[in-house]
Amino acid sequence: MPVPWFLLSLALGRNPVVLSLERVVGPQDTARCSPGLSCHLWDGDVLCLPGSLVSAPGPVLVPTRLQTELVLRCHEETDCDLCVRVAVHLAVQGYWEDPEDEEKFRRAADPELEEPRNASLQAHIVLSFQAYPTAHCVLLEVQVPAALVQPGQSVGSVVFDCFEAALGAEVQIWSYTQPRYQKELNLTQQLPDCRGLEVQDNIQSCWALPWLNVSADGEDVRLVLDVSEEQRFGLSLYWNQVQGPIKPWWHSNLTGPQTITLNHTDLVPCLCIQVWPLEPDSVRTSICPFREDPRAHRNLWRAARLQLLPPLGWRLDAPCSLPAEATLCWQPLDGGPCLSLVPPLPRENVTVNKVLEFPLLKGHPNVCVQVSTWEKLQLQECLWADSLGPRKDDMLLVETRGPQDNGSLCALEPSGCTPLLSRASTRAARLGEQLLQDVQSGQCLQLWDNDLGALWACPMDKYIHQRWALVWLACLLLAAVLFLLLLLKMSRVKGWLRLLKENIRAGAAARSRAALLLYSADDASFERLVGALASALCQLPLRVAVDLWSRRDLSAQGALAWFHAQRRQTLQEGGVVVLLFSPGAVALCREWLQDATSAPRAHDPHDAFAASLSCVLPDFLQGRAPGRYVGAYFDKLLPADAVPALFRSVPVFSLPSQLPDFLGTLQGSAAPRPRRLAERAEQVSRALQPALDSCFRPPGAPGTGRGMGPEAGDRT
After folding, report:
1. What is the pLDDT of residues 323-334, one digit of tens each?
2. Transmembrane region positions (predicted)?
3. Pairing of strands 313-317, 305-309
4. Nearest 5°: CA angle at 568, between 562 and 569?
5. Are 18 and 137 contacting, i.e. CB atoms less than 8 angstroms apart?
6. Which of these, 81, 474, 651, 687, is most buried using a 10 Å CB contact count?
7. Strand partners for 258
């Protein structure tokens, strides 16, 4: 038996405010005016066309405010409909252009004249009422005696009974004059449903509403619908967002009674329940019972995702609106706390699911976005690290400008903003004069600028190099002395040299360049060829990553996440991404390039090449590929002109004929001399030959079984 959590009824609501409504008898619409005015309701509907604005010829009567009231229009005692009564408040606007016209108007209304004329100010007021899917307009004729005509003064109001509307509907009301002398007034109102009105016994559509109880079942939530077995009804769960339209989450047509269990992890504050009988023109009633539930608020922050959009945009994705603020902060390279940039930059209220921008001139990898509530920091993401690279050892300077063009500079540090020309014992204070010269000479990057101040990012690498120059010089001198002492002991020279050679080899392996190998798994023989190439490259001072050896990680993370992590690590370490073209890879590239607007077809979930195209192609299209990517293809498998032209912005090598150039490009600055490079190319060519031969061996021939490189043990 579940413990009652809170009971909700769609007829009463959670904390109901029950309204007792006035009754209007009869089907006819009517109009009445405040004392002193006369009004008339024109028969029949009028066209809902406001027309264009025109200039007033003198004082005119215009609507100034709309006011609504709910009433019941009853045909019988228990047969009523919800109706909206509208009151239009009126005022006189404008002045006489010609004083003589004003004088004539006043004399015509003078009661002391022997034959006074009934001078008055007349206006045609249009009321437009829209409640999806219908629209209805009425025309009211109002006359104001000349004695009440005072420009800028209110003269009274006219009340219209009434516009019929459905329970729970959203209605829009406009009011304007014909001709139109000013912008039309408008009013939008959400009408209550059966749960908020004392109408259950008067409106027949409220009689058949299903009753809903919400209770706790351990950690989960139960929705119990108490209806008869024959009654059919619709049930919908949706996210009611303040910003944007309603987002349906779950919908079903059911037959009562029903008990539905919701997982506690699915609860969010804007999750609402809507239920209605499956009958023509039935009333739909909604409740949102989880607005104050602590679990729902925790789930909302767990589901929120902060997405950074280059160059300077960001977006917070969440199912519901979030009462939060976003700020910028500066993340130092040493990994300390992110230093807030407020002030000088302002805080900004968060609008979920909408792209926002911060007022920076340029991006910097040390700048981060923080999203927080009044209680604590909720989310933090550093800006554009994928496109701008890793964080830098830069010093952020805050320039404050005052009146008369006098300003000051301070460096943002964990202890606060340190003035550059101060006696503090911080790094910024010790280098204050040099940093000031860097700003004046244009060596610092300006991130933000306005009349009150600016932000500068100044590189600190050169000062670190100067600091350690003497230390390195001392180390070199010490090494030279030790080397001379070793030469004095000739009997032990060979042993020391052998040990030194082993240390150099170990150091070279530790400093080897990273290479990420991407390919399309066309068939088993081509995978063996890729494995042979990867194994041969591992014998060089290269650290090779290939999905063929990481199948377990691919299954756990997914191909796109695995590639994104490998690509980021490779590029951050100064490595290179190798695109190995084959007939299948070329076909995939052309498919993406020719039909970029539609979703690509489904591929093998372990195919990192297909998953990586969504990240690789933007680098080539935006000119970021040179220096990061290298292309290659095998002579006998693909003609040279088959590689798409887009990828020729980086070096593309034919294997094995261009192996020396290919290996030299992969090793970069660590490449050996040409003779040694040719020897290594010959070693790689010999290692590739068996796998190349198997690619052209007829199917079923001996030796075509699936093979692995020595490092492929973690493939599954």
Report:
1. 888 888 898 887
2. 468-488
3. antiparallel
4. 90
5. no
6. 81
7. 225
Q: How many CB atoms are closer than 10 A to CB 428?
A: 24
**Residue 493's pLDDT band (boundaries 50, 70, 90)?**
low
Residue at 592: amino acid letter? W
How far apart are the C-alpha atoms of 624 and 140, rounded to whole Å?
67
Dist CA 332 CA 380 (whole Å): 14
The strand pairing partners of 369, in sequence order, are 328, 381
Q: Is the alpha carbon torsion for 578, 584, 586, 590 positive or negative?
A: negative
Confidence at residue 697, expressed as pLDDT on a 0 to 100 scale: 64
Pairwise pLDDT comparison (246 vs 370), residue with the higher score: 370
> What are φ and ψ of residue 447, in 5° steps?
-95, -30
Q: How far apart are CA 361 and CA 411, in angstroms?
A: 19
Structure-block tokens of residue 202? 């008067």
Q: Assess whether the previous peptide bond of 656 is cis (omega < 30° from 0).
A: yes
Single-letter amino acid, residue 346: P
Pairing of strands 220-226, 258-262: antiparallel
Dist CA 655 CA 660 (whole Å): 10
Structure tokens at 44: 């029949």
Closest listed residue to residue 461, CA positions, set 438, 433, 436 = 438
* Beta sheet of 170-177, edge-to-edge order: 38-41, 134-145, 120-131, 170-177, 185-190
- Give pLDDT tens digits for 408-461: 888 888 888 888 877 777 887 888 888 888 888 888 988 888 877 889 999 888
CA distance 609 to 634: 17
Q: Are 555 and 606 contacting, i.e. CB atoms less than 8 angstroms apart?
A: yes
Between the CA of residue 191 and those of 168, 195, 283, 588, what are the distances in Å?
Answer: 5, 11, 12, 55
Sign of CA dihedral 566, 567, 573, 578: positive
Using CA atoms, how far apart are residues 334 and 307, in angstroms rounded to an integer? Answer: 24
Q: Say how far apart CA 384 and CA 370 lie, in whole Å.
A: 14
Q: Name the one residue in this structure whose structure tokens are 């093979």.
A: 707
The phi, psi pair for 283, rounded to 5°, reads -85, 130
- Among residues 234, 91, 193, 103, which one has the least CA distance to residue 151? 91
Judge whether 37 and 155 are in contact, CB under 8 Å. yes
Q: What does the alpha-carbon distance between residue 495 and residue 486 come to, in Å, rounded to a whole number?
A: 10
* Band of pLDDT at residue 466, cut at 50, 70 and 90: low
| Contact (CB, 8 A) for 78 and 204 | yes
